[in-house]
Amino acid sequence: MRSNCILFGWNRPIPGREATSGQLFQTFVEFLTVQQRAGTVESFEAVFLEPRGSGLNGFFIIRGEPDKLNAMTSSDQWARQQTKAIINLEDVVVGHGATGPLVGERMKMWLEEIPRA
Fold first, then answer.
1. Dihedral angle, C-alpha 44, 78, 49, 96, nearest 10 °
2. Which domain holds residue 58?
3. Chain-centre distance of CA 19, in angstroms?
4. Please, is 48 exposed, middle or buried when counting C-beta atoms within 10 Å of its C-beta (0-12, 13-18, 19+)?
């Protein structure tokens, strides 16, 4: 299924790795900035959530063309970023999703597949 966005989220730094996690954040922003300049990523945004007792306290939403995002997430550079996150952050989550016009396409498909009585 085509996806035009990626959610890269986390709960919090593993205790004792806060400084490393701060550096990881900077490195990831630099990685995404390079990807944006190269035209692989259209845009990205970091979101820090207010405390609410959940396992998700922040995330990046990364937008781009489906094929370009797939190529990026298949790269060794992406795997390295993800590995660093898994080692230093709790509850890392990476999810592919749909925004903009793809939401309409997905909804149309969903409506078409609803069993009719």
1. 80
2. 5-113
3. 22
4. exposed
Closest by CA to 32, choosing from 14, 1, 6, is 6
62 in Cβ contact with 97 (< 8 Å): no
Kindly tell me if the per-residue pLDDT of 1 is higher than 80: no
Domain CATH code at residue 39: 3.30.70.100
Residue among 26, 31, 24 at smallest CA distance from 6: 31
Strand, helix or coil at 53? coil
Contact residues for 98 (Cβ-Cβ < 8 A; gap 6+):
2, 3, 4, 5, 105, 106
Q: What is the pLDDT of residues 38-95, one digit of tens each?
A: 999 999 999 999 987 778 999 999 999 999 999 999 999 999 999 999 999 999 999 9
Tell me the per-residue pLDDT of 12-49, one tens digit each, with 9 for 90 and over: 999 999 999 999 999 999 999 999 999 999 999 999 99
Q: Which helix (H) or strand (E) holds 67?
A: helix 66-73
Number of domains in the chain: 1
